[in-house]
Amino acid sequence: MFQTFDDLSDPSCGAPHAALLRAELARRGLDGFLIPRADAHQGEYVPPHDCRLQWLTGFTGSAGVAAVLGEDAAIFVDGRYTIQVREQVDMDVFPARHLINEPVTDWLGSKLKPGQKLGIDAMLHTVREVRRLKEVCEEAGAELVTLGDNPLDSVWEDRPEPPLGEVALYPVSLAGREASDKIAEIQSALKDKKADACVLTQPDSIAWLFNIRGSDVSHTPLPLSFATVPSDGKPALYIDGRKLSNSVRDALSDLTDLGEPDGFVSGLKTLGKAGARVLIDPALAGIGIADAITGAGGTLVEAQDPVLLPKAIKNATELKGAREAHIRDAVAYVNFLCWFDEEAPKGELDEIGAAEKLEEFRRETGVLKDISFDTISGAGPNGAICHYRVSRSSNLNIPLGKPFLIDSGAQYEDGTTDITRTLAVGEVSPEMKKHFTLVLKGHIAVSTAKFPEGTTGAQIDTLARIDLWKAGLDFDHGTGHGVGAYLGVHEGPQRIAKTGTVPLKPGMILSNEPGYYPAGEYGIRLENLEIVTEARDLPGGERPMLGFETITLVPMDLRLVDVSLLTQAERDWLNSYHERVRAEIGPLVGAKQRIWLEQATKAL
Fold first, then answer.
1. Which of the listed residues 337, 360, 534, 595 has the most CB atoms within 10 Å of its CB?
2. Model pTM above 0.90
3. What domains appear along the chain, each with residue ranges and CATH number?
4. What does the pLDDT look like over 141-158, one tens digit per residue?
């Protein structure tokens, strides 16, 4: 199994670990310290070696920060984790705050006193974050102290070793472009920005640029590393040499100068001493990176990581791979749904059993490299926890009469998948059908959207919510995230969300996943992946328009649909989608599953 169900969180760790940290801070003459859920790469995917927030508080979510002062402490999480944080963290030690509604900077502004010193790890806080932190400290008469090491590491006695996942070359037959061509594109962009070099901190940017994949973090083929790319000449790749076989080392040596990670800061200082203008992404680069460059005499050019947009716009080979991966994944998923409909009504199936069986069907493809994240298998009230991770202690039997939410994905060499389905188990209430159908209407609105070039994800996001809003309902997460090409299941800069300010472009892959989550009761979410395409067949149209191509091909559960709430156009979309699923997936499954699929995709 790629997924484990061990209990990773222990709320009782909060008090003793906070005491250890406070003692170390006092020894260093610090009055406070910030502990983000981040490593030096500022990515979403963090190895156990760098899970400092989890060690300190017990919180296992993918976003958050804790603040520890002499007498006060708090943990800050966003709307996805408001339920989870209270289950995993001792609220007496780390009271929970909403990361958006009450940012950590606001909290610090009310707590810091004149003359106090607030410490941060220079590699764990971005340039943009540190600017705001400095403002808050100055307003309070306090001092922000950037540290070259982390006080928490000094008291973390059983800290895991850094990962040493083997690096593999990603073939051009799947990547669609030579690494040398990608490097030339980035170098051209640097010249346009009048930058002499750029710094890359995101492992997925580095993996895409050099056509490599790794295994340093769970479920995502990332090689943890840093890189600098000059506007002319060879890039430098800072990666632990123990991850490289001789053949991989030889291939990379033709493209880049290889160095160990502990030489990264020295490389930055060398750029600074040469007076280089160095592009960094202030939202991704730690302040320690910026300080190393400017402290040695270099100049910063602040701009978005130049790899993000080219990586997000998939080429024809990557899109072909994504489509093929989704067909393969749909076959496994239909096998699972057929099995689920037999087993769940018996009343003995639990969340872990469902997650294990779905992974088993994906393994039967023979080409599964990993799952793309821990399957969210949420029965009853656990379904209302947006990013719920089932463990042996939280595991529930899947009850009759409530929706069951399962959000999962797969990593195949030719593509990354991510799909959520909400399934009826037994007879569900009219209210549940209403909520499901309102979510479905939002999903259809996004899928069928036509929009002019330059439209952002924030503008599309409203389409997913409007029918929920009319009913006085909403959901506290974005409608969609970008998805990589055998890379991260969450990829920027594209997103469909209130914060989605990047224009959507043909070739981008995004999720479409509105939801609704009555706390303590159940969860509903429907997710397909969509490719942004040029819209066609718009008679009378005056402007170039874009739209979406749905590549997830798995039935929606018709037993949860209140047909009276759908317009004729929405019924037509659902019938057409199911007809496509039946036509493309039906011939690829067994006779038993084909019979099930015919029933599951019948026209409304």
1. 337
2. yes
3. 11-155 (3.40.350.10), 168-307 (3.40.350.10), 313-600 (3.90.230.10)
4. 999 999 999 999 999 999
